[in-house]
Amino acid sequence: MLTGPNAQYYQIMIEAHDYRLYQQQQREKCAQQRALAKALYAVTTMKNLKLAGYEEFNALLELICSIFFRTMRHYFRAQQANKTITLAQLKQQCFLQLDWLENGVSSNMYFLEKRSD
Question: Among positive and negative, which fits the CA dihedral 16, 11, 28, 66?
């Protein structure tokens, strides 16, 4: 996505925050994406997740994709500002956010209890 033949397309789409453009251009792939989501769902051990079925699983996939696209947007903005960001830094940022999703952000349960008062 960063250096391939469609890099400029992805940059414009991500910077414009226009995921509708992406969806319009990808309509023919929609059936393939649904099949992939269903295939992922079929091989996922659901007992390890707090999900109540396919709809919630699909929402989780969308959340993961939003993390990915936000990370890409960060790269393109840094590039426009003539700031250097390495692929390793980009991966670290993406994996950090995925870790937050998987494990939460609080290292102290007392903090969560205190905030709910």
Answer: negative
Distance set, CA 82 to CA 27, 75, 78, 79 (Å):
34, 11, 6, 5
Does this model's pTM top 0.85? My answer is no
Q: Give the C-alpha separation, 98 to 91, whole Å.
A: 10
Tens of pLDDT, residue by residue over 17-69, are 655 655 665 565 667 778 888 999 999 988 888 999 999 998 898 899 889 88
Residues in Cβ contact with 71 at an 8 Å cutoff, skipping those fewer than 6 apart: 90, 93, 94, 97
Residues 71, 97: contact at Cβ < 8 Å?
yes
Can you tell me the distance from the alpha carbon of 73 to that of 109, in angstroms, rounded to the nearest whole number?
32
What is the three-class DSSP state of 107?
coil
User: Is there a contact between 94 and 67 (Cβ–Cβ < 8 Å)?
Assistant: yes
